[in-house]
């Protein structure tokens, strides 16, 4: 039985018709499950190249079908990550705003129409299944944990506590214990607080990483006015009191400097969330008697909270779903609709995406870029990469199938020397991130036991879910990854789960005596992690990263001439529009103005020159810059290259097929 799970909005990437804020969705993904086993899973952002995309996962859907070699007609069920009643309420609101939807009676009809229009095939509406959002989160964690019995806590806008058992199918493996309504949403508490400090909801990771730099005591009493702990593991949130908790804190606009008062608020917020979460878990742990815990939902991505749960001793084992965010709901929806028994073996990896292939397929793809990169087969990529890292280089490491989830694990990462504290600043600059943001480490199990104070067996730390305290006498080995509170975000790499990264760690240990590597996702902040060979090359040419391994192939940036750049083909991404308008220029005169806009960020208006407009208005992905504008020179080439760096246009060798 084939089941397709979907998460995301309603629009294709080139449209923004139904993207009104009150209908906002994000983290689009598709997952294909066959007889209860994941055969393909990929987030839409990896393909449409829009971070945290709220578009419908059409590209991801196609990629999953290609991976299995089937058509949409072969799929038995199509599962969406929302309950049908909730989805119908959404459609009712949409119908008021968009009269053209008058003929579509409900969510099933709208979803069917969207899929049929884009995929150009008929869909039997009976094949469409709606799964409540909180249930998709819970199933995604319980079914992949390998636990026979566990408590499941979904920390999300629509969350709850469940008991899970593996002796039933995924549809019936959960027994609800407590429902947590949006009025009790810890995610909403987090988002309201960080918005007041100048952060967007998508910047919660950056905001929460300020907590180790703050003093929770400075705002503890004020923050405690926002929540009340009740009997039986219950609690209340008083969002109206948040203004009091923020009283006296300096206002901050996005991008402005962070002050100590802002750090103190975040520290108090993290402490409050931890106290509430532990209050809920103590009650349900006692009442259920269960010693294993599964976590999912956006709130399960706060490592410090997860770490306090782990250190509490309440549970023998804690499994945090690696794709705990909404993309993981596509997985939960597919598993729930398939109703296969949950897996009994613990999850080892989430490498379910597209495969980069062998050197025999990678090298031909790289030859097209011959003017821009040098590529050669490496006989010992792990040993060679380890040598470069030990010598001070940051190295891209891409191989095999891409991984599901916001956290980079091992298939698409940048690695560097964890002993060199300067690497933190260098990698944060490369990725255009705030200097305070910490990096994570991947390590061998024996090194984890030596370098960290472990509250559980090292083999349980397979995901980057916890911030663990480094042993004081060995902190120099992890200097670049240390948080301000002496912890590091770490994961243990097992050979069976990721043999290539395990080999790289072993080779680095042979050279340095340290079986750990600094890791971060293979991107530079302007787009999601690299998915394809072309994505890796684009990163090398526009980020400051100069060397990468794509499987067994070593790729290095090389200097290209102006003529080479002018011979590149140019194309607008499907999410980008080039616009020309006539109006006031700088409030002083009337004239022509040219700009780029996108379907995913309505506030973005990037001004461009008339010469760049002339090129982009004709761009078709086939003809070169020079051919599109006779006599184009360095100014146009430089402008288009800068736009490529921001991923507002795409460039590649014109001879690309």
UniProtKB/TrEMBL annotation:
Q: Which residues cross the membrane?
A: none
* SUPFAM superfamilies, alphabetized: Actin-like ATPase domain
What family is this?
Belongs to the NodU/CmcH family.
Q: What is its EC number?
A: 2.1.3.-
**Domain of life the protein comes from:** Bacteria
Q: One matching Pfam family, short form?
A: Carbam_trans_N
Q: What is the lineage of its organism?
A: Bacteria, Pseudomonadati, Myxococcota, Polyangia, Polyangiales
> In Gene Ontology terms, what is one molecular function of this protein?
transferase activity
Q: What positions does the domain Carbamoyltransferase occupy? A: 23-84, 122-335
Q: Which InterPro entries match?
A: ATPase_NBD, Carbam_trans_C, Carbam_trans_C_sf, Carbtransf_dom, NodU/CmcH_Carbamoyltrnsfr
Protein's UniProt name: Carbamoyltransferase
Annotated keywords: Transferase
- Record organism: Sorangium cellulosum
Q: Main EC class of this protein?
A: transferase
UniProt cross-references to PANTHER family, sorted A to Z: NODULATION PROTEIN U
Domain annotation Carbamoyltransferase C-terminal: ranges: 387-556
């Amino acid at each position: 039985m084939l089941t397709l799970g979907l998460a995301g909005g309603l629009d294709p990437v080139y449209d923004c018709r139904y993207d009104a804020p009150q209908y906002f969705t994000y983290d689009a993904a598709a997952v294909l499950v066959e007889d209860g086993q994941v055969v393909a899973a990929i987030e839409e952002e990896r393909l449409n190249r829009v971070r945290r995309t709220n578009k419908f996962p059409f590209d991801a859907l196609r990629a999953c079908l290609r991976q299995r070699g089937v058509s949409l007609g072969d799929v038995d069920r199509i599962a969406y990550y929302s309950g049908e009643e909730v989805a119908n309420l959404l459609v009712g609101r949409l119908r008021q705003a968009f009269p053209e939807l008058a003929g579509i009676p409900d969510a099933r009809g709208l979803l069917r129409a969207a899929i049929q229009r884009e995929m150009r095939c008929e869909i039997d509406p009976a094949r469409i299944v709606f799964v409540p959002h909180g249930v998709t989160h819970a199933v995604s964690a319980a079914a992949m944990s390998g636990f026979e019995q566990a408590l499941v806590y979904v920390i999300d806008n629509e969350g709850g506590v469940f008991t899970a058992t593996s002796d039933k199918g995924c549809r019936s493996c959960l027994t609800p214990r407590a429902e947590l309504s949006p009025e009790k949403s810890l995610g909403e508490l987090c988002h309201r607080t960080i918005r007041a400090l100048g952060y967007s909801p998508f910047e919660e990771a950056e905001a929460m990483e300020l907590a180790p730099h703050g003093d929770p005591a400075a705002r503890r009493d004020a923050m405690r006015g926002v929540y009340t702990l009740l009997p039986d593991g219950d609690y209340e949130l008083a969002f109206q009191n948040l203004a009091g908790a923020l009283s006296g804190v300096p206002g901050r606009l996005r991008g402005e400097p962070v002050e100590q008062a802002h750090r103190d608020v975040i520290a108090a917020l993290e402490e409050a969330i931890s106290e509430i979460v532990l209050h809920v878990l103590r009650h349900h742990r006692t009442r259920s008697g269960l010693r294993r815990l599964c976590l999912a939902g956006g709130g399960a991505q706060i490592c410090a909270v997860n770490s306090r749960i782990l250190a509490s001793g309440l549970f023998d084992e804690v499994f945090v779903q690696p794709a705990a965010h909404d993309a993981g709901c596509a997985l939960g929806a597919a598993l729930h609709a398939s109703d296969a028994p949950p897996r009994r073996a613990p999850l080892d990896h989430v490498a379910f995406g597209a495969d980069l292939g062998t050197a025999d397929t990678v090298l031909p793809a790289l030859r097209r870029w011959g003017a821009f990169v040098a590529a050669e087969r490496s006989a010992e990529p792990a040993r060679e990469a380890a040598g470069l890292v030990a010598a001070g280089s940051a190295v891209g490491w891409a191989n095999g199938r891409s991984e599901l989830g916001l956290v980079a694990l091992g298939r698409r990462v940048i690695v560097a020397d964890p002993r060199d504290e300067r690497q933190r600043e260098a990698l944060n600059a490369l990725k255009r991130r705030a200097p305070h943001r910490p990096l994570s480490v991947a390590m061998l199990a024996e090194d984890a036991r030596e370098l960290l104070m472990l509250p559980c067996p090292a083999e349980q730390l397979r995901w980057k879910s916890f911030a663990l305290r480094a042993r004081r006498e060995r902190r120099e080995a992890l200097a670049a990854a240390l948080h301000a509170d002496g912890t590091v975000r770490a994961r243990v790499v097992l050979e069976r789960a990721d043999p290539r990264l395990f080999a790289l760690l072993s080779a680095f240990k042979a050279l340095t005596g340290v079986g750990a590597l600094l890791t971060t996702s293979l991107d530079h902040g302007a787009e999601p992690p690299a998915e394809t060979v072309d994505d890796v090359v684009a990163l090398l040419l526009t980020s400051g990263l100069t060397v990468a391994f794509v499987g067994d192939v070593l790729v290095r940036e090389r200097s290209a001439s102006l003529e080479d750049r002018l011979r590149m083909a140019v194309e607008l991404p499907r999410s980008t529009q080039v616009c020309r308008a006539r109006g006031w220029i700088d409030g002083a005169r009337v004239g022509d103005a040219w700009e780029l806009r996108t379907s995913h960020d309505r506030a973005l208006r990037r001004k461009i020159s008339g010469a760049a407009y002339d090129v982009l208005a004709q761009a078709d992905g086939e003809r070169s810059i020079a051919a599109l504008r006779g006599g184009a020179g360095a100014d146009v080439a430089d402008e288009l290259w800068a736009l490529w760096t921001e991923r507002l246009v795409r460039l590649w060798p014109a001879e690309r097929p």
